[in-house]
Amino acid sequence: MPKVQHFQVTFDCAEPERVARFWCEVLGYVVPPPPEEFASWDEYTSSLPPEQRDADFACVDPTGVGPRLYFQRVPEGKIVKNRVHLDVRAGAGLVGAERLAVLEAEAARLIALGATHVLTQYADEENESCITLQDIEGNEFCVD
Fold this sequence. Notes:
The protein is an alpha/beta fold. The chain has helices spanning 16-27, 41-46, 96-112; strands spanning 8-13, 56-59, 68-73, 87-88, 116-121, 130-134, 140-143. A 4-stranded mixed beta sheet has the order 4-7-6-5. A 3-stranded mixed beta sheet has the order 1-3-2, with helices on one face.
């Protein structure tokens, strides 16, 4: 069986560029350059038929390590909880009060970008603290 070398994570959303730019800020990702024959993404978008404009957008890890994130416009809105979500690993390796403080600081930064707080799960005998947020279109993700 071949080894998978690369993958992307795809988001269904109403406003692909807006959601992509939110995730760029969250993860330190960047918008890739437009196709070679275009000077800007606006120029590229203007070249498309009207029904294809603003239909998708992407962002990438500038180091090339993380997966590409792809955002595609869909007509329906989000109705139920995500079956897959991203974890923003802000507190990896930390425990207790130190971990919670780092998670709360990261959550505050993301809320300032437009995220919404859903739930803070505090450490217990089995699990460390974790904070669940929603992005600007209501997709759940964890800060852990």
